[in-house]
């Protein structure tokens, strides 16, 4: 009986301490704005997210979120950095209200999280070719060409698989586990492969260091990217949809796309390709 009484007293004490701890967590700023915890990737992905000389986060995502704060003055974003998967786990556990890690939408995640209806940007995929190549601009041009090795799974492979399923003329695919983007670009430069298929931002990051004799032959797709929220954050998602759509229509987000990517990726792919979406034109991007 004595042991039970001691256990009960200890349980009550722990409960009271937990209440004290919860009450100490700030939910508003000193000036009364609602604090929204935003998970950001600890792994940079320029130009979506990078760091400056003072190790401060910069990039398209940060400019977008800063503009959202201006248009939703009752909200203050508090940034926490972590790995992508741990960020998603944190949202599910209620640790963060949302994450801004250039997420694609997929059925599995849609069951677990809340997606705004309006994407805040696009991740573009393209064919990287030798700088002397003039004839490769789309996947149609690759049915008789040699594509650099690709992974057996993932978003890029899904695009290639879908193309082969929907077309009689197939793209020959060489599959290896975890292909190196750097080695694939070197294969294209040397002529061992006619093209490599990758995200344009990935190509930019590598090319800024290697300065290979390669270029973007053509844009293949633009995949919408979204913020990911706790399912309970329906009001916040609605507010984000409203201001994001406003920013698209008034030219704010197209201007940010031009600033960081060198092109307005809210336009269609034909327009983007016609604008000459080449690395040389984007190398001075912030």
In words, what does this structure look like?
Helix content is 41%, strand content 20%. It is α/β, with parallel strands linked by helices and 286 residues long. The N terminus and C terminus are likely disordered. Keywords: Lipoprotein, Palmitate, Signal. InterPro entries: Solute-binding_3/MltF_N. This is Amino acid ABC transporter substrate-binding protein. It is a lipid-anchor.
Q: Would you give the CATH topology of the largest domain?
A: D-Maltodextrin-Binding Protein, domain 2
Structural class: alpha/beta
**Count of the separate structural domains:** 2
Task: Please report which band the strand proportion falls in: under 5%, 5-15%, 15-25%, 25-35%, 35-45% or over 45%.
Answer: 15-25%
Integer-rounded radius of gyration: 23 Å
Topology pattern, helix = H, strand = E: HEEEHEHEHEHHEHEHHHH
CATH superfamily of the largest domain: Periplasmic binding protein-like II
Major β-sheet annotation: 6 strands, mixed
Q: What is the number of helices?
A: 11
- The level-1 CATH class of the largest domain: Alpha Beta
Helix content: 40-55%
Mean pLDDT: 87
C-alpha end-to-end distance: 70 Å
**Assigned CATH architecture of the largest domain:** 3-Layer(aba) Sandwich
